[in-house]
């Protein structure tokens, strides 16, 4: 099952994000787990940019797991791996290296999801 909100943003400017795309492309051993909901405004606003950056970086679909999340009446979230990863807010994106979490974006940061993740990836690999 996939998220419509992960469809790449058609106006994504690769030239403006070369550092981010290069970082995402360089590390082909990473996997990306994306929790979101097509009903979620934050997801609709942010995930297309992530989809575009991952596509521009040539990240294979088999390294991206898109997990749809439902919002329950009490505001909590339900869906695959929600409890195991402690997902409370969406979008949440976890980057793993050899089954170890190395980066996590939760709901909102001052920069876009791909920029935030690329910064954490460079820190993890000592590239900053």
Automatic annotation (TrEMBL):
A UniProt-annotated Pfam family: Thioredoxin
UniProt key word Isomerase: yes
Domain Thioredoxin: 3-128
GO molecular function: isomerase activity
Keywords assigned: Isomerase
Gene3D superfamilies: Glutaredoxin
CDD domains noted in UniProt: TRX_family
Protein name, per record: Thiol-disulfide isomerase or thioredoxin
Organism annotation: Halapricum desulfuricans
């Amino acid at each position: 099952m996939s998220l419509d909100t992960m469809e790449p943003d058609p106006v994504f400017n690769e030239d403006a994000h070369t550092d981010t795309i290069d970082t995402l492309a360089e590390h082909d051993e990473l996997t990306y787990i994306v929790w979101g909901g097509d009903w979620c405004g934050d997801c609709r606003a942010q995930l297309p940019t992530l989809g575009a950056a991952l596509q521009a970086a040539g990240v294979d679909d088999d390294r991206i797991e898109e997990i749809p999340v439902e919002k329950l009446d009490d505001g909590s979230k339900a869906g695959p791996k929600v409890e195991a990863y402690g997902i409370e807010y969406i979008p949440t994106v976890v980057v793993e290296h050899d089954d170890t979490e190395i980066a996590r974006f939760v709901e909102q940061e001052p920069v876009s999801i791909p920029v935030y993740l690329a910064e954490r990836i460079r820190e993890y690999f000592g590239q900053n």
